[in-house]
Amino acid sequence: MGWIDKLNTRVARTPFGKWFRLEGSGAPSERAGSKFSVELRAGLTTFIAMAYIISTNALILTDSGGPCDCDREKFGATCETDPAYATCLQEVKLDLITATCAISCLACVLMGALANLPIALAPGMGLNAYFAYTVVGFHGTGKVTYQNAVAAVCIEGIIFFVLSVIGLRQWFARLIPLCLKTATAAGIGIYLAFIGLQSSAGIGLITGSPATLVELGGCPPEFRDKNNLCTSHHMQGGPTWLGIMGLMVIGTLLLYRLKGAILIGIVLVAIISWPRPTSVTYFPYTEAGNGAFDYFKKVVAFHPIKHTLSSYHWDLSSGEIWIALITFLYVDILDCTGTMFSMAKFAGYMDDNTQDFEGSSMAFLVDSASIAIGSAFGSSPVTAFIESGAGIAEGGKTGITTMITGLMFFISLFFAPIFASFPPWATGPALITVGSMMMRNVISINWNYVGDGLPAFITIIMIPFGYSIGYGLIAGIGSFIFINSAVWILHKVSGGRICPPNFNERDNWVEFVTRGGFKSNIPPWIMRLFGKQPVSLAPHHDVGSENELKEIAIENSKSIH
């Protein structure tokens, strides 16, 4: 037994190990194959896959102008010619880097410690763009002020918290048909891969096209137009080929079950990209490159929040603010719910009976509380991140993974120049790899019955093509209701004579919703309040039979040792 095995055994036998149900801890329902050393590596992998959020979220939210303002009659609608406004924006950007690290740290630690799930939280990328460019508008040119917008985010978090406390958010999640939950995981896999193929958060292999929407890219930065489209020299960009090399390295290492394969690939590509005089450098000799390199050289830097902390303005008289609030609510509840259920399924925590996952009530409570707290830092809504799949793929099974991710965000408060300098072509290969792993969920979809298969397929394709998990679920749910309602009406009106030939092969949605009983989604504290025994949510792993579980555990054990 090596020193790592001894460390894992000793940690598992402590109260800490028992709390997180590590293998060998003696806790009820131990997480099979969970080891402390693997959790550390998985948490670091998740963080590195998410590190781009530190600078990207700050850049997007800074475009809203934050609480900064100027004389717009004198300097124009966007205030871009006002030197004082420009100075304020620079300080707001640093404020938002600190805010992103702080709320991500807090949310991840709470999720790991209380829900014991390897699902990381941070400000959502889609919602921050909606917040900055639609609600507040570029440099405050929208109909809602920044202060009003963060107040709306706070209200959203409070509403979600109440829904989670009484169990309605979990009940709503259970109403989503099984085929759509399964399809969501596969759709997120394609979505992850699509992000990993683009230039904003990936290797730049796929770019936009005015004729075909997307096309093969891979051109050097100097051959891109103002819209980031390749004008020539396709597939001649060094960063793209370096990203492809990183993907091949990760794939090869995974094939041999090498520990930390995804993490090794990310770090290797990042280190190659940091030296300046190369064709693959992340710091080219341009104005933006020089600024990024100057920030990178600081290594250690901490900036206290000056402008965005608790910058609320509780004026809810505008109709626009209510439209924004409703949009935040429905997009976030579908986006976060879809992500959490997909990550839980990917990790093998789905309960066969209730189609819920262990720790869901606390996970939703942590998510909603984080939204409200994040608004106090000046951030857009916090949500579950699909990049959590990178840590799960590395073997993360408990909340320790998420707590390590949170710890890394805390360290980033002081080492943000380093962690904000991982190039997108270093993390892109990891996203593509995780996407391929999540695609295995499609085999669990009931393709034999069109009433299940077609809505599932619509969900799968609309998540990446609509660039939103929420929109994909809306399309899937809408098509499922229309098709199956028509079948049900014809079946009832005809007395059962008109029905599809393979009607008996459908997933019985009504049985699926009711067989676990509504009580299984009521939080235990409410059950105890009324003198009832809480319903136990046994950890049924939705990954196959007992023999398959044993085979997976053996394979994971081999890869760990």
From TrEMBL:
InterPro entries: Azg-like (IPR045018), NCS2 (IPR006043). It is found in: Endomembrane system. The chain crosses the membrane at residues 96-121, 149-168, 175-197, 238-256, 261-277, 321-341, 362-386, 398-422, 443-463, 469-490. The keyword Membrane applies. This is Xanthine/uracil permease. Pfam families: Xan_ur_permease. GO terms for biological process: adenine transport; guanine transport. One of its GO terms (molecular function) is purine nucleobase transmembrane transporter activity. The keyword Transport applies. Keywords: Membrane, Transmembrane, Transmembrane helix, Transport. It is a multi-pass membrane protein. Belongs to the nucleobase:cation symporter-2 (NCS2) (TC 2.A.40) family. Azg-like subfamily. One of its GO terms (cellular component) is endomembrane system.
